């Protein structure tokens, strides 16, 4: 019927405000879901690549708009899967180099020797197996844009060569004595804290300040939850088209899970989840059973940190998630044992009613859980 919650008398103004705020927030999500169902095919995006309208993504889009027409070096930072390459492509697509080449290079998967050869090229006989001259990406991309991803993984030696290249767009192919000059724009990205790496001595300070011209920080998906549904519908439209489906949207349970989930793998993980859901769904609406959610603590445990800072962050998140699950089970159990009477449950476990209600609100526990509990 649309009822969201109830307040047993007596209640305080703060309790009333809290329930109203929660109801308004959930209502906004449901209205957003309804709007996107009606607007499929006309979702707002920037260069069809950056989707969302949260203040944080708006700031990123505005930064892209300002820097795209220039030739300035851009450094994009953010967790894995946040869409750093999409930002680089948006910058290129809105620049004067848009009709020229865009090359993306993952520096984290290529050895130093191979990376040098790929970027700068090599002369015949430069090393074993170099049977002929080979132009590098910098030469081939002349006039265009080169995107270097995971720049924090390259050696100090390669950093020094890139620093020299940035000073005059001039480089020496491996095994050659003739310098070559090109006109390319460099966009770099990292998921590491380069400033900490400078302090540790694993990243050159002069190179850091040379590439720190126009930094763009891409926020993780969990920090811009209002963008989750727009992005989900963006991918839904893509996979409807590629898989020949006509799925209209998501039901309310799926929407709640999508918007409340923390998405440790960010946009990349959301994309995979929507693709799987579209493949599995045989109806007009995607439900919770088509979404591949597993326990968040298990997902965090499976992640392999690459730095000590990332290790500390994952350990902190595991503690928070584990405690959160214990709290949630504690509240639901207390309510179930006391016929879902909040006052009685709070008294039984030794908490003030307001504190008990705060835990309920924190974990999104409402009468809906009571209905499910009874059915079970």
Q: What fraction, in percent, of the residue positions are helical? A: 40-55%
Report the CATH superfamily of the domain at 69-217. Answer: P-loop containing nucleotide triphosphate hydrolases
Largest sheet: number of strands, sense, barrel closure: 5 strands, parallel
CATH first level of the domain at 69-217: Alpha Beta
Mean pLDDT: 83
N→C terminal distance = 22 Å
Low-confidence runs of at least 5 consecutive residues: 40-48, 368-376
Question: What is the general shape?
Answer: elongated
According to DSSP, the number of beta strands is 13
In short:
Helices cover 51% and strands 11% of the residues. The chain is α/β, with parallel strands linked by helices.
Please explain how this structure is put together.
This protein has a domain at 69-217: P-loop containing nucleotide triphosphate hydrolases (Rossmann fold). It has 376 residues and is an alpha/beta fold. The protein is elongated and about 85 Å long. The chain has a five-stranded parallel β-sheet, with helices on one face. The chain has 16 helices and 13 strands. The protein has helices at 13-38, 55-67, 84-93, 112-120, 137-140, 156-168, 194-200, 205-211, 228-243, 252-260, 266-280, 296-302, 308-337, 342-349, 353-362, 367-375, and strands at 45-46, 50-51, 74-77, 102-106, 121-122, 134-135, 145-149, 170-171, 180-181, 185-190, 214-217, 249-250, 285-286. Residues 40-48 and 368-376 have low confidence and may be disordered.
What are its keywords?
disordered C terminus, two-stranded antiparallel sheet, 376 residues, alpha/beta, 16 helices, 5-stranded parallel beta sheet, Rossmann fold
């Amino acid at each position: 019927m649309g009822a969201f919650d109830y307040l047993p008398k007596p209640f305080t103004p703060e309790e009333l405000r809290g329930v109203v705020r929660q109801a308004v927030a959930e209502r906004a999500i449901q209205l957003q879901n309804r709007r996107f169902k009606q607007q499929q095919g006309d979702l707002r995006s920037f260069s069809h690549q950056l989707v969302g309208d949260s203040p944080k993504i708006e700031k990123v889009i505005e930064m892209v708009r300002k820097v795209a027409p220039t030739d300035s070096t851009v450094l994009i930072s953010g967790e894995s899967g946040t869409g750093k390459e999409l930002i680089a492509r948006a910058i290129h697509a809105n620049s004067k180099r848009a009709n020229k080449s865009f090359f993306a290079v993952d520096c984290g998967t290529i050895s130093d020797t191979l990376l040098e050869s790929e970027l700068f090229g090599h002369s015949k006989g430069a090393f074993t197996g170099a049977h002929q001259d080979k132009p590098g990406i910098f030469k081939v991309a002349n006039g265009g844009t080169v995107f270097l991803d995971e720049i924090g993984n390259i050696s100090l030696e390669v950093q020094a060569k890139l620093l020299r290249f940035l000073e005059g767009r001039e480089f020496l192919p491996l095994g050659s004595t003739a310098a070559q000059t090109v006109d390319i724009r460099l966009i770099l990205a990292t998921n590491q804290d380069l400033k900490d790496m400078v302090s540790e001595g694993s990243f050159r300070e002069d190179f850091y300040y040379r590439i720190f011209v126009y930094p763009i920080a891409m926020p993780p998906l969990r920090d811009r939850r209002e963008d989750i549904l727009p992005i989900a519908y963006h991918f839904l439209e893509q996979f409807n088209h590629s898989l020949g489906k006509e799925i209209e949207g998501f039901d309310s349970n799926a929407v709640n899970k999508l918007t409340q989930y923390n998405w440790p793998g960010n946009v990349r993980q959301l994309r995979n989840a929507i693709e799987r859901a579209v493949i599995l769904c045989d109806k007009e609406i995607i439900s919770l059973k088509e979404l591949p959610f597993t326990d968040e603590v298990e997902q965090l445990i499976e992640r392999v940190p690459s730095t000590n800072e990332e290790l500390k962050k994952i350990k902190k998140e595991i503690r928070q998630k584990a405690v959160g699950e214990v709290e949630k089970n504690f509240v639901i159990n207390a309510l179930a044992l006391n016929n879902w009477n909040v006052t009685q449950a709070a008294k039984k476990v030794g908490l003030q009613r307001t504190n008990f209600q705060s835990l309920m609100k924190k974990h999104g526990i409402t009468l809906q859980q009571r209905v499910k509990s009874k059915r079970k």
